[in-house]
Specification:
1 helix; mainly beta; 12% helix
């Protein structure tokens, strides 16, 4: 039997599961929207799954709802990995926003 070594969490900010369908728009990629599913969120960014390949190092605009507020944020894709039949992308927020940080902190506290 093979045992995996447990990975170490080196994240700066705590994250929480965040399952939500949404759409993204790739900057300089035309006006085509791409469907995606969020899987987690933190102050630093979020991760999502999509059937769209080739978003490595892209800058995207994404629409989502956290709590009662709709958000539109700009993110840069930091990693991409094929996961089953879809691609999993990890993204980092490109700008700081204290209001967004407060919303995310509240969401994470509720999920703990």
């Amino acid at each position: 039997m093979i045992f995996r070594k447990k990975s170490v969490n080196n994240r700066v900010h705590p994250r929480a599961d965040f399952f939500q369908p949404s759409y993204l728009l790739v900057e300089n990629g035309g006006n085509k929207t791409v469907e995606c599913w969020f899987i987690n969120i933190s102050r630093g960014g979020l991760a999502f799954d999509s059937e769209q390949a080739g978003l490595d190092n892209a800058v995207i605009n994404i629409l989502y709802k956290i709590g009662q507020q709709m958000r539109k944020d700009r993110l840069s894709v930091r990693f991409a990995k094929k996961f089953l039949t879809q691609w999993r992308y990890g993204c980092q927020f490109t700008d700081t926003d204290p209001q967004r940080n407060t919303l995310i902190d509240r969401y994470i506290e509720q999920k703990q």
